[in-house]
């Protein structure tokens, strides 16, 4: 590694307005744990409940003026999917009267849970019958986005006014009224007055704030043992778990968390949540492939299980995903091209590219792993599929990823292509380019599901294709993955490709990692290494080693700093001066990545300093000016880079990945951030010619091997590390793996599919 590129300025303290908040780095939503404060930390402020513009956890719905946006189309598709889930919910069980005590199957199951946990009964004696599974539908009910989606209906003004009065009576900010009215639906004001703890359904509201609100409305009736409080806290904890990536929680972990928050009878709280249909209880075998014990087996032969509680939304999505993947795996792929033609194409390729082509020829689901250079292999597969007459498409996580893969597929040279001497697409291809890039069969996952991009759907509602290659597969959460799996027709082929070392999805689940661990389909590991010093550095991090690498072309530069002020100063200096002058990479092609949004060197502080240097202005529209670089979040977990064009009565006009987007004034605070600096979660799926990773002293607790790997691997040509964490960086790389997530997908797959070996 080399020293910093030549500079003329001397380091010194530079603290722009708003550079400090609380001195602690805020982790992104996807890194939030079960500790208090895992959600957005804004609390009940006059500005709203959720942290503004967080692309990793907000429920922002971007609008687009006269023309409907991709976000609106996606939301319309999601509404239809919610309706489908409600239909399946009705099929699974009959309605339970609201507020009634637990009875029937639910009561029996909860009693069994307690008996097993207390040791009063062995598992085999309690669960004599296998857990009921949802019967497979006769025909796949696929989500079909509306051809001309409409924006969500506005909440009636009278409903908002009613909620505002209740909030005022309880001493809560009346600015929460629109969110509360939207979250609670019809009769929101009456619901909130009858059950003040429903305020926890608004993002960013914390239990102690809801308790204070309840005391103001109910007086002495608002006690810690109130049934409504226990039920609401159960749902809130499960929502916090979902923000941290879990699709379910172990029963003991949930009841312990409830007890920590002053719920005297945690078991009853869970029972009430189940009775209201707000949660489900599961018993999953620890070894799902172990045979069921015989009736005359002794007690020692019982089948060990784990007891889980989850929100119905994610439980149904995970089951739907397992069913959809099992259908693809068990279906015979369409005979598009003879076996001899597939084999000739494989023989024309070499190495792991040939293995990928052969695996795809005979299987409905294939996993492909590798770094940036390995993208040449899915590109070769797509060329082969088109040559054989298949309707083949690729889907990426971000618009930048779509542009990169389009360039790779068309064989054109771009600023992010491998350096000379490294592996090129031609090393792995089995044919010429499919397109000149103008009509490439490459889409974003969100655009594909919304119907805004891609092949459209057939008469049955399935995607009109034969092969779908999903890149950035680790970014798939369970709901998105379920939509994809159910949208594919019988006989279609699905290839999930990605780098397993990067951060997992912002939403619940770890779909790609679970599939790799389940071993239910072929897995092809690329043997194309990422080239150059950057490739060597990132490869080492992936196996837990932070190596010194030779960087004769200043590919990797370490910039040590002593404190937060110096870290901000040196970051601005690198982006605006040093990197453009020494390496020829302009500021607009350099991305800053830091662990969190808050703190003295979070995205807010860095963006304020970078704006002052690169595009100073008064912030005439919500803090933004024409020319500002922004990160637009049209939906939770998605971030699209863009630039401010102008602002008018319609809202803030952006240019995002070549598309014009209009964000209404009342959505700007939630949907748009300045984008010179982003978090690693926001950067996943994109790469830039130059990247500056900022590691201030207070970032040590936020670092892990996946975080460092993701941040460092976003750079194509140059990486600068503003280093202020001393030994915390190598320790994170060698000792801190990804935070575990509790999911059910491996168990659900194991009950339907044999292990691939």
Number of beta strands? 19
Instruction: State the helix count.
Output: 26
The profile of the biggest β sheet is:
6 strands, parallel
Separation of the first and last Cα atoms: 41 Å
What is the percentage of strand-forming residues? 5-15%
- Helix content range of the residues, please? 25-40%
Regions with pLDDT < 50 over 5+ consecutive residues? Answer: 5-68, 92-106, 121-140, 144-153, 413-433
Report mean pLDDT, rounded to a whole number.
81
Characterize the overall form: globular
Overview of this protein structure:
There is one protein chain. The chain is α/β, with parallel strands linked by helices and 757 residues long. Helices cover 37% and strands 13% of the residues. The protein has 26 helices and 19 strands. The strands form four sheets. It has a six-stranded parallel sheet with strand order 6-5-7-8-4-9, with helices on both faces. The chain has a five-stranded parallel sheet with strand order 10-19-18-11-17. Strand 5, helix 15 and strand 6 (442-444) form a beta-alpha-beta unit. Helix 11 runs parallel beside helix 17, helix 13 crosses helix 14 (376-387) and helix 19 runs antiparallel to helix 24 (705-712). Residues 5-68, 92-106, 121-140, 144-153 and 413-433 have low confidence and may be disordered.
